[in-house]
Amino acid sequence: MTSHVGCRNQDWHCDSAHGLTVIFALVEIDLPKGPTEIEFTTPFNSLGVDMHTAKIKQKDKLSPESVHACLPQGSVLIFNANANHRGTANLSQSDRPILVLDTSPCCEHLEGTCWESE
Question: What is the pTM for the complete model shown?
Fold first, then answer.
């Protein structure tokens, strides 16, 4: 996935209800290049949960509302695929390519995915 020069912030999103998101930094990613931002104000693991009956962990009051994952080239960022996150705007003078691996299990409600077995 490449964030080209001038790309705006992505919308906040989760990748899946289960699994991990793995991001490989193919170039150095500093603040101007638009690092991944992970948000901690949404209750963790709340995707698809009945908010009235589920026991959901809340964030620690001392933790930040979000963090920017500035990464040296060659480093890896791994986080829960259910974490609310986004790519931020690329305000630098060069593109920001990253390799993203989705380790989420197959979604049974989706048809025609590449994860289906024959």
Answer: 0.77
